[in-house]
Amino acid sequence: MDRLWAPWRLSYVASAKPANERDACFICSGLAQDKDREHLIAWRGPKSVVVLNRFPYNNGHLLVAPRAHKASLHELDADETLEMQQMLARLATILGDMMKPDGFNIGLNLGKAAGAGLPGHLHWHIVPRWQGDTNFMPVVADTRVIVQSLESFYTLLTERIKN
After folding, report:
1. Cβ(90)–Cβ(162) under 8 Å?
2. DSSP one-letter code for 115
3. Residue 4 located in a structural domain
4. 20 to 30 Å CA-CA from 71: which of 27, 36, 85, 112?
5. Mean pLDDT confidence for 41-53
6. Is residue 101 part of a domain?
7. Confidence (pTM)
8. Is 63 part of any domain?
9. Which domain holds residue 143?
10. Cross-strand bridge partners of residue 125
């Protein structure tokens, strides 16, 4: 059996979580403020939002979520579902043009047992992937190589996503 080790995520997993789940929601907290760059919010639509993952698995790792705090798929209305799926398709095109990945992982971890780090506010991950993008660094140096800063990527993405 192969194992995927992600030691760079320990700081996120081990951090203290507020007792009230809604207070702990970084998506809702970011949406409540007018500081999109600080909260890595790249786009706000009428029904959904795009956020850069603060703890990315790869360069370009994004989250697409409903603006409303909803934990289950059945809570979404048709407009929310449609806008998020259209945005995922648009982001795959934008990231494909920007970064030239060989493919994407696009998925949803529904519930804590399924790996959701924020189980109260569902969100899709879109992660660009390249042939051979895993290397020896996480194993021998406990280091994940991300080739671009979040700030630099934020600037490039927001310029393209608004067009």
Report:
1. no
2. T
3. no
4. 36
5. 96
6. yes
7. 0.75
8. yes
9. 15-161
10. 63, 107
Q: What is the CATH number of the domain that holds 110?
A: 3.30.428.10
Decide if 29 contacts 41 (C-beta within 8 A): no
For the chain, what is the domain count?
Answer: 1
Which of the residues 39, 121, 123, 125 is marked catalytic?
123
pLDDT tens digits along 90-145? 999 999 999 999 999 999 988 888 877 887 899 999 999 888 766 544 444 455 55
Asked if residue 64 lies in contact with residue 48, where contact means CB atoms within 8 angstroms, the answer is: yes
DSSP string covering 64-95: EEESS---SGGG--HHHHHHHHHHHHHHHHHH
Please say if 123 is a catalytic residue. Answer: yes
Share of the chain above pLDDT 70, in %: 76
- Whether residue 108 lies inside any domain: the answer is yes
Cα 126 from Cα 87, distance rounded (Å) = 11
Sheet holding 124-129, edge to edge: 41-44, 48-52, 62-66, 124-129, 103-108
